Structure formats: structure tokens, C-alpha cells
# Entry
Amino acid sequence: MIETDKKKCLRCSACVGVCPKSALTLKEHGIECDGEKCNNCRLCEAFCPMGAIRVVKK
# Structure
């Protein structure tokens, strides 16, 4: 699962485009992650230009 820092997130969707499992969706309020699809690969975290995404284990 991911946590998004809404203050840092620019909603640029760089993370959405890089997700190999299509687990991320850009919504009006920010990025949403489908925990059932997410495999914790951390690509979204690596590609976020603002460092707004953090992968956490739940």
C-alpha cells in the first residue's frame, strides 16, 4: 500500500503511468491505491518527482 503526502503531491500522475499493476488512480482529491492490485514494487515511490509517495506495509 502507499501513503501520499497531499501537501507535496502535484497530481502529475507520473506514479499512475509507471504502475505495472494499474493499482493507482488519479482522483480529484489525489492518488488512490487499490491494495488488492498493489504488489509493493515501489516504482511509484521512485518515480514521484516530489517524493510525495511512501510505500508502507499493512
Notes: The two ends are 7 Å apart (CA to CA). The first strand starts at residue 2 and ends at 4. The beta strands are 2-4, 24-27, 30-33, 53-55. The helical segments are 14-18, 43-47.
